[in-house]
Amino acid sequence: MKASIFVIFITALLLCQSPTALSVTCNPVELSSCAGAILTAAPPTAACCAKLKEQRPCFCQYKQNPNLKGYINSDNSKKVAKSCGVPIPTC
Where are the beta strands (DSSP E) in the chain? Predict the structure, then answer.
């Protein structure tokens, strides 16, 4: 159920996407492969880690979004990022 809610929030935020440097398109739906790891504390998949690395330039934008802030700042999100070797920027 939580995974469904997460995907719904991510999908709804598709309209909030914006490009950043390095031709990365900020699209929170790209992180849907991490939903299981973030919501259940399961180990992240290789696909999740790849998307985290790709979307890292967008993390500050996601942290500013009230609908995503709780997911980005959660303990499980931090554990997933650490497991993937993706530092979370200070914004």
Answer: 18-19, 25-26
Residue at 37: amino acid letter: A
Below-50 pLDDT ranges, the chain: 7-9, 11-21
Count other C-beta atoms under 10 Å from residue 54's C-beta: 16
What pTM value is reported for the model? 0.72
10 Å CB burial of residue 48 (0-12, 13-18, 19+) is: buried
Task: Dump pLDDT digits (tens) for 38-57.
Answer: 999 899 999 999 999 999 99
9-30 core/surface letters (b: 16 or more CB in 10 A; e: else): bbeebeeeeeeeeeeeebbbeb
